[in-house]
Amino acid sequence: MKKLLFLGSVCLFLVGGIKTTPATPRLVTQNPAPTTPAAVPAQLELLTAGTEPRQQLRLKPQANTKQLMTMTMNMDVAMTLAGQAMPKIKTPATVMKMEVLVTQVDANGDIHSKQ
After folding, report:
1. For residue 17, pLDDT beyond 60
2. What's the whole-model pTM score?
3. Distance (Å, whole) CA 39 – CA 27
4. Averaged confidence pLDDT in the chain
5. Which helix or strand (DSSP H or E) is residue 12 part of?
6. Rounded to the nearest 10 degrees, how much is the dihedral formed by the CA atoms of 58, 62, 64, 66?
7. Which side of the chain, N or C, has fewer Cβ within a 10 Å radius?
8. What is the DSSP secondary structure assignment for residue 51, as one 8-state letter?
């Protein structure tokens, strides 16, 4: 194997190596990405207001508690190339699992956590 590699190197050296043409610089321009449309606000319908007295619903975890969080993301990818729309690609769902530790709960209800 070493002899074959050595002979190949000698042949390339004697022939003058591999001839290549120098690369010519070219200017590539990009069109600015079109602005994405504004997000559509969620539509919410109140079925019943409930009975008095009403109170604000707020998650109130205790400090130093752990919970397992699962987040599932579904995305579609759409792009244009040189002004032409490419077919929309539906990507598979991405599932992320994290263990979240509540480190502090402020008096106003803000929750501080770490993963």
Report:
1. no
2. 0.40
3. 35
4. 77
5. helix 2-15
6. -60
7. N
8. P
Q: Say how many residues make up the chain.
A: 115
Q: Which amino acid is at 75?
A: M
Cβ atoms 69, 88 nearer than 8 A: no
What single letter denotes the amino acid at residue 38? A
Residue 36 carries which DSSP code? P
Q: Which long-range contacts (CB under 8 A, 24 or more apart) does 69-76 make?
A: 69/97, 69/98, 69/99, 69/100, 70/95, 70/96, 70/97, 71/95, 71/96, 71/97, 71/98, 72/96
Q: At residue 3, does pLDDT exceed 90?
A: no
| Residue found under tokens 């007295």 | 53
CA atoms of 16 and 12, how far apart (whole Å)? 6
Identity of the residue numbered 96? M
Distance (Å, rounded) from C-alpha 85 to C-alpha 40?
Answer: 22
| Cβ pair 96, 61 in contact under 8 A | no
Domain ranges of the chain: 61-115
The answer to whether residues 67 and 92 touch, using CB atoms and an 8 Å cutoff, is no
